[in-house]
Amino acid sequence: MKTERLLNLVTRAGLALGLLGFAAWSGLAAIERADGASMAEMSDTAFRVRMAGGLPEGASASWYAAVGERALRVDGYDPEFAVLALERSLRLEDRDGENWARLAYARLVAGDSPISVSTALGRSYQRMPIGQWQFRRWRLTLVEATWPELPVSVRAQAALEAAQQPVGWLEDHSPSVLSAMQSGS
Questions:
Q1: Tens of pLDDT along 33-70?
Q2: Would you say the pTM of this structure is higher than 0.85?
Q3: Does a structural domain hold residue 123?
Q4: Suppose 92 and one of 57, 61, 137, 163 were both cysteines; which one would form an S-S bond, judging by CB atoms 3.0 to 4.6 Å apart?
Q5: What domain range includes position 65?
């Protein structure tokens, strides 16, 4: 009888500790999500000060992605920092097609090789063949800017995505993609 009670107490204590650990982890994750979301609202100066020490180790993929995205919007900021943050994010979670496209853009702005830009853009299409309309338009504009350097496979994926856009928009923003879509090449 005493052994049974002791086992019951140990089981309950273990369960309580497990729940407490889960609650602590959940709380820390919520703090990190809020911190990542707050970066969008930071002034450029506040962001620069915050990131002056570089990227910390051990953050989540979403936090690194928030830093990378914010770094792309800072006036006169080093785009290589955005590349670093987005690469860390994608090392932790590589299924996000939007982050792959952001990485392609960051690499383009940083002056990286056309191969590294087109590789990231190709991964974006692999992970998200057709995005929401705002993202789709942004990505097709990026494709247009890098069209001459893109391999045939990425061009074909872009043409499929372009089929979801009005022809008038494509004429104004992505004429190379429209031409490829119309010619079937």
A1: 555 566 778 888 888 888 889 999 999 999 999 999 99
A2: no
A3: no
A4: 61
A5: 1-93
